[in-house]
Known about the structure:
By secondary structure, this protein is of the alpha/beta class. The chain has helices at residues 6-22, 25-46, 66-72, 84-92, 128-146, 168-198, 201-207, 212-242, 250-277, 284-298, 313-318, 320-332, 342-362; strands at residues 53-57, 77-81, 98-104, 112-121, 152-161. Helix 2 runs antiparallel to helix 6, helix 2 runs parallel beside helix 8 and helix 6 runs antiparallel to helix 8.
Amino acid sequence: MKPYSQGRALWAITRASLISIFRSPQSVFFGIFFPIILIWIFGALSGGGKMKFDIGMDPASDTLNPVFKAMSATPVFDIIKGRHDSLEDMMKKGQLTALLLIEKNTDTARKSLYNIHIQSSSASQRELPALNSMLGNIISGIDNRINPRMETVASVSHEEVEGREYKLIDFYLPGMIGFALIGGAVFGVSFLFFNLRETLVLKRLYASPVNRLNIILGETLSRIIFQIVTVIILIVFGKYLYGFTLANGFITFLEMLLVTIFGLVVFMGAGFVISSVAKNQNVIPIYSNIFMFPQYFLAGTFFPTSALPSGIQWLVRALPLTALNDALRKISFEGAHIYNCGKELGILTIWGVIVYAIAVKVFRWE
């Protein structure tokens, strides 16, 4: 008599669970088609471009001059300050339209009061004509108002460096991946194991020769496989329809998959906890949304976390979805590798330890 094969049992559970997921219209719609619809909407609205001018201001700039004050008062300009090397790095990656240095003109034969040096990358060439036009209008307006017969208030010079274009799809697609993963993991696992427990299927499996770990792994692997398929579809959709950036090509694609699997496993831990503490099926959406809903709006899914108040940045940075979104963006656009995402993976690891420690404590088979 052949010994019972735990490997075959694990595969049987995984296969059956995976088939049930793909046969569920709700899982397929919210896991695959809903994120695709959001990417399509954001891509169509953005046209692959930027919403406004993100201008880095060199820390050596004179910020008391009228040009800087006029730019700061113009809503279309988002003035970003920081260290020169940090701003220059952002500019080269296409995250800034240009880096400006405004200095007083010390030339005795000067024709302007200030010199404005614009440093831009090849990634922002489409925005430069509009930027130059608006900057010219600001200078002309100041000249006409306060300096009509004297030298112009500022002269402008340009410098271009190599860079990579940062499109809106490069921001939104990683956010949509995070959106799909956390929803699929938390809702999927919590409803699945609650229903298996309520219908006594989990109890029967527990009484079978199948190893208890394999029961959990089988259901977990099916969810991971489904979500990997989802991520692959989203990346391919964004890449070939809207030019989503994969900085290192296929290597970036593989590293994004590895990070999503890690994030998915962490989020599934929250699903195990919810399925165990829920007294009935009606409270599962409530518990799930308490965990997920704040993260949708605080974790940089739909808009940058920098737009949020500085007083809650510590909370924003501590969220697991923020860590996942940041890691995916660093890998996809900046060309970072997994070993460059230690901070983000560390936050996910801490969350994983916490949720699985709770899950082990509260998990029930019946």
